[in-house]
What we know:
Bound molecules: zinc ion
Mean pLDDT: 92
CATH superfamily: Creatininase
Structural class: alpha/beta
Helix content: 40-55%
Strand order of the largest sheet: 2-1-3-4
Radius of gyration: 19 Å
CATH class: Alpha Beta
Largest sheet: 4 strands, parallel
Amino acid sequence: MTGDGVDKGAEQARDAPFPDGERIGWQQARDHLTAGKPIILPWGAYEQHGPHLPLATDTAMAAELALRLAARFGAWLLPAIGYGETANNAGFPGTLSLSFDTVRAILLDLCAALARHGARRLIVVNGDFGNQAPLKLAARQARQQCDVSVLIVDYPGLEQAAAEVLETRPAAPGFYHADEFETSVMLAAAPDSVRMDRAAPEYPRFPPTYPALFAELDTISASGVFGDPRPASAEKGRALLDALTRQAATLITEFLAETNQTTSPPRRPE
Length: 270
Ligand SMILES: [Zn+2]
């Protein structure tokens, strides 16, 4: 997936005109909110990703996709949340998991704070499987309690993109962890943090009750790797990021159109 029409990638995205949440002040934030422009929050985790990827992998991946989307939509890119609900990896040292209710409460608190100043919608780019359920519950509560619509972007189109770009199969259907997918994206997004000399495959045997029965992943995998990271490359990572960005952009475009019709304009001072 190279040639015309691909996304320009992180280097150019960093030069694009969008409010960087790490750098802007309150007046820029106010103007962005008053104009009803999009807001993007990347949400990762701090959890084991095998011997070759950093604990902050999910955060770096979500931040990279969010950066590309912020550049595309002129969105206010909020600082990434670097912790998530990752209880299934808690048996590995270094994994620092938040509880389900903490994740839910953080998102709801942020929605309330944004709503106070006129925001009626928020886009969350989620990089961690365990966050899905608490974020979904918080999104429902945000709609009911503060009239904020939250779109949760969970790597849309991932399975199809992975099937097109990757050489190896996932350890289980829809299960991508410290494998060729995540390693390729990290080689594209944060190459200095990847130790390919430590990359080794593991295809763990899942218990027949998985995932119907909760299982700690250290009881299933010795290394924390699920799949084969060895054929990963930065080029594959860029192709995957381009595909994910396209799919996410389609979803966000629909979301912005729908919420434009159904929500009230942001409050303005008289
Ligand atoms: Zn991950």
